[in-house]
Amino acid sequence: MPKVFLKTYGCQMNERDSEQVAQMLVARGYEMTAQAEEADVVLLNTCSVRDMAEKKALGKMGLLGRLQKKRPHTVYGLLGCMAQSRGASLLAEVPHLDLVVGTQKFHKVADHVDAILRRKMAHDPAMDDLRLSVVDTDEEAGSQETIRDHVTAPASAFVSIMQGCNMRCTFCIVPDTRGAERSRRIGSIVGEVRELVARGCREVTLLGQIVNLYGRHEFPKLDGRSPFVQLLEAVHEVEGLERLRFTSPHPIGFREDLVDCFGRLPKLAEHVHLPLQSGSDRLLKAMHRGYTAEKFRTLVQKLRANCPDIAITTDIIVGFPGETEEDYAATRALTDELSFDNAFVFRYSPRKDTPAATLEAQLPEAVKEDRNHDLLSVVNRHAQQKLQNLVGRSVEVLCTGPSRHNDTRLAGRTRGNKITVFEGPAGLAGQLVDLDITETAGFTLYGANPRVSAVNSHSGW
Question: Which homologous superfamily does the CATH classification assign to the domain defined by 156-388?
Answer without folding.
Answer: tm_1862 like domain (3.80.30.20)
